[in-house]
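Exercise: predict the fold of this chain.
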Amino acid sequence: MKQARSDNIGISATFLGGDGWDRPDLVEIGGMALGSSFFANHFSPDGRLTEDARQFVNAYTEKYGIAPDVPAALGYDAATIIADFSKVR
């Protein structure tokens, strides 16, 4: 986005992104070039959560000092599915 908004290219449109934008250093990397941009995501540690999700967010935040991002949540879901499936077998 810094390149796109540079004087050489000069794009001033609103940028839209997907879940790949969900990273703690996004603003550090993109800086002011992110202005008026939006991204959609399928997980937010600040959203309405089930009790299981809330426990995951709390445990993750306590252990790592930051809230979980999408890859962390998806990894947790995958591990939980594997653990549950292996109980059934």
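Check your answer against the key: DSSP finds four helices and two strands in the chain.
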